[in-house]
Amino acid sequence: MSATHEFIIINTLTTRRPTLLPVRAQDPNPLLPSVRHFLDALRTEKGLAHNTCLAYGNDAGQFAAMLQQRGLCAWPAVTPDHILDFLEQRRAAKCAASTIFRELIALRMLFRFLHAQGLVPADASERLEAPKLWKLLPDVLAEEDVERLLAAPKVTTRLGRRDKAMLELLYASGLRVSELVGLRAQDVDLESGFLRCTGKGSKERLVPVGSHARAAIQAYLAQRAAGAGSAPLFVSNRGRAMSRINFWKRIRGYGKACGIVKALYPHILRHSFATHLLTHGADLRVVQELLGHADISTTQIYTHVDDQRLRAVHNRFHPRA
Questions:
Q1: How far apart are the C-alpha atoms of 2 and 5, rounded to whole Å?
Q2: 207 confidence band (pLDDT: 50, 70, 90)
Q3: Is-catalytic flag, 270?
Q4: Catalytic position from the list 176, 214, 250, 276
């Protein structure tokens, strides 16, 4: 592939939406070719997942853009302070703590690569400790809002039945959106009420599918042309696999249509799935397994309770409430 057709993801420091810029030999940012080689190494040597490579490339690209804004055009001139300044800018831009932690990991991997290639005399990230993650509660929809959202698609249309099935399944299973759009027809067993999905790290897990989601999927499949078991379960208007961006636009549109003020995105249904399960008494380790979390500390963030439930518990059990 020629250099004019190779791309790297770059962001501004104040937005989360990536922009694709061509990487050329005469690119005005002389740091970018090294970032491109770093991405090639991630794909070929580390064997990282496609989405992980995109995220790390985006992080490294943003860092290179910040360095260029400061007049730095060579990697050996980068110091640990530059990395800390970048992370602080990301925090000031109100990025999630988990995002900033991932960006630090990406920059550590970048500088290890640069040092191994002899492009820098020392690893500027070597002595940096991971910042203590400040706790941010996940966005969660109230159960009434979830019901309104799930009822928003018009099931009298083909696309409405597809969207209804996707929304119901997302809330019923707590899947990541990449797992949802990656499902194949053979991955869902409606008779047994289970689906098999591949999550982070290529780990497979079995997830139960609720009765409402099964009914919605059956209604969707009844009007969809039958395909091979390896075919995508959810397809676009053109018969291709649904993309994450397409589904994100659809869910945002349904949120506006049914009057939900909170900004919607697919992961909010995953957050709501976990929170509502725990609110109704589910065991934390069961929720961990359903979500596919490797560490239970990741699941524990969902153990927060809303003010009304906190007050109700206090009023019920405190002797002087």
A1: 6
A2: very high
A3: yes
A4: 176
Is residue 158 part of the annotated active site? The answer reads: no
Residue 314 bears catalytic tag: no
For this structure, is 200 an active site residue? Answer: yes
Chain centre to alpha carbon of residue 194: 23
- For residue 204, the one-letter residue type is E
Query: Is the confidence at residue 14, as pLDDT, over 80?
Result: no
Complete DSSP assignment for 132-158: PPPP-PPP---HHHHHHHHT-S-TTSH
285 is catalytic: no
- Which entry of 115, 196, 267, 304 is annotated as an active-site residue? 267
CB 56 within 8 A of CB 106: yes
Q: What is the pLDDT of residues 297-321, one digit of tens each?
A: 888 888 765 555 666 667 877 787 6
Contact residues for 318 (Cβ-Cβ < 8 A; gap 6+): none
Q: What is the pLDDT of residues 107-166, one digit of tens each?
A: 999 999 999 999 999 998 887 766 555 555 678 899 999 999 999 999 999 999 999 999
Q: Which domains does the chain have, with CATH numbers?
A: 3-116 (1.10.150), 143-311 (1.10.443.10)
CA distance 4 to 134: 41
Active site residue 304: no
Residue with tokens 């820098």: 120
Q: What is the pLDDT of residue 5?
A: 33
| Contact present, 219 and 166 (Cβ < 8 Å) | no
Active-site residue, from 224, 270, 271, 276: 270
Would you say 111 and 125 are in contact if contact means Cβ atoms under 8 Å apart?
A: yes
For the CA atoms of 255, 259, 263, 267, the dihedral, rounded to the nearest 10 degrees, stands at -40
Stated pTM of the model: 0.63
The single residue of 56, 220, 254, 302 carrying the catalytic annotation is: 302
pLDDT digit string, tens, across residues 264-296: 989 999 999 999 998 888 999 999 999 999 888
- Catalytically annotated residue among 200, 205, 244, 304: 200
Structure token pair of residue 17: 């939406």
Residues in the chain: 321
For residue 288, count other CB atoms closer than 10 A to its CB.
Answer: 19
